[in-house]
Amino acid sequence: GDSVTQMEGPVTLSEEAFLTINCTYTATGYPSLFWYVQYPGEGLQLLLKATKADDKGSNKGFEATYRKETTSFHLEKGSVQVSDSAVYFCALSDEGGGADGLTFGKGTHLIIQP
Amino acid sequence: KAGVTQTPRYLIKTRGQQVTLSCSPISGHRSVSWYQQTPGQGLQFLFEYFSETQRNKGNFPGRFSGRQFSNSRSEMNVSTLELGDSALYLCASSQRGSGNTIYFGEGSWLTVV
């Protein structure tokens, strides 16, 4: 079945540091890929998405590129802020667009120190 | 437009009881899915409803059930609660189809004591 693997944290960085959170996936078809963010005590918010190979999703300074050849969708940000502290989830959706639900990684807890 | 709304936000139940959680999707979204989030298992897919029909189900026991109404609102029910059912239950809605974004509510925090 489908699966998503992402680095588990916590990942601790200083403010203005460069961020990379690795995400790789296994899927039988051509999935859509997502990054969701969860702030303490809240639900999931969509951060960005990409629906086909070589697409780049971007939002709020975060970027991720759909790499089919390496089955990866790594999240990057050039300069993190304290407000970026949260848990980040990489996820995939199969061709049915939710027929089997989203498959999530375990989540990466990101802590940004001032 | 309004997001996905879940009620109640917090609840405490006793082992053996049952619970019903409610979800109102984004207007125009006909697909509603439910997820369970726990520290140990992470986010796990429970089931998806579309046009009042369950389209898919995750690997959960029959104590977990759901339904969808004609206005796309959905409820999930857990019967004979166990301590391990304590979790954040997230509802999500989408316009079903490849590449469509799934939007989540803030969740219902269930504690079983």
Description:
The complex is a heterodimer of chains A (114) and B (113). With 114 residues, chain A is mainly beta. Chain A has no helices and 12 strands. In chain A, strand 5 and strand 6 (44-50) form a beta hairpin. Chain B has 113 residues and is an all-beta fold. Chain B has no helices and 11 strands. In chain B, the strands form 2 sheets. In chain B, strands 2, 4, 5, 6, 9, 10 and 11 form a 7-stranded mixed sheet that branches. Chain B starts with a strand and ends with a strand. The mean pLDDT of chain B is 93. The chains are: A mainly beta (114), B mainly beta (113). The A-B interface holds A 32, 34, 36, 42-46, 49, 51, 89, 93, 95-107 and B 4, 6, 31, 33, 35, 42-43, 45, 48, 55-56, 58, 88, 90, 92, 94, 96-107.
Residues in helices of chain A, as a percent range? under 10%
Strand content bin of chain B: over 45%
Q: How would you describe the shape of chain B?
A: globular
Number of helices of chain A: 0
Query: Uncertain segments of chain A of ≥5 residues (pLDDT<50)?
Result: none
Cα(first) to Cα(last) distance of chain A is 41 Å
How many whole angstroms does the radius of gyration of chain A measure?
14 Å
Helix-and-strand structural type of chain A: mainly beta
Uncertain runs of chain B: none
The total beta strand count of chain B reads: 11
Give the overall pLDDT of chain A as a whole number: 91
Coarse structural class of chain B? mainly beta
Query: Per DSSP, what share of the residues of chain A sits in E-state strands of 2 or more residues?
Result: over 45%
Shape of chain A: globular
Rg for CA atoms of chain B: 13 Å
- What is the oligomeric state here? heterodimer
Order of helices and strands of chain B: EEEEEEEEEEE
List the helices and strands and how they pair.
The complex is a heterodimer of chains A (114) and B (113).
Chain A: E1 3-6, E2 11-14, E3 19-21, E4 23-26, E5 32-38, E6 44-50, E7 56-59, E8 62-65, E9 75-77, E10 86-93, E11 103-104, E12 108-113
Parallel strand pairs in A: 2-12
Antiparallel strand pairs in A: 1-4, 3-9, 5-6, 5-10, 7-8, 8-9, 10-11, 10-12
Chain B: E1 5-7, E2 10-13, E3 19-24, E4 31-38, E5 42-50, E6 53-57, E7 64-68, E8 74-78, E9 87-94, E10 103-104, E11 108-112
Parallel strand pairs in B: 2-11
Antiparallel strand pairs in B: 1-3, 3-8, 4-5, 4-9, 5-6, 7-8, 9-10, 9-11
